[in-house]
Amino acid sequence: MARALPCITEGCSFCCRETTMPITASESARLSRRTGMKEDEFCFRDEENVRRLLNNDTTKACVFLATDSAEKTAPGICTVYEARPMGCTTYPIVLNDKDKAILDELCPHLDGFDEPEEEDAIRLLNLEERLGQE
Ligand code: SF4
Ligand code: SF4
Asked: Among all ligands shown, which has an atom nearest to the Cα of 89?
């Protein structure tokens, strides 16, 4: 049986705060359909034309995070959990500068995650290719 992720057991929402999470065009369309929000209400385009999730002005957290606090360690719940972008589902697995999949040291509960595998790197490389496309 798969072990419970610390995101749940620790009630953590650290990585949803001050997010810069990139999303693809199809993920943006899915989020629009799911929430009824226009794209510019939940993401912006960076200088490389990549869509990135916006943060709420008050909570400084992703606009989809339900939370009362701007504290990074405060609890929060993703309101689009089933439709969240792939970058959110794979985090804390990220690519390093050699395109190897690693666990991001910014996550405060890394002990609760398995070491990434080669297929994680392939999945993230495929995602990178789709970012910034129309
Ligand atoms: S991936 Fe890490 S930082 Fe993000 S919610 Fe889970 S435990 Fe917290
Ligand atoms: S979409 Fe959900 S999981 Fe992803 S950063 Fe926003 S609140 Fe967190």
From this structure: 2
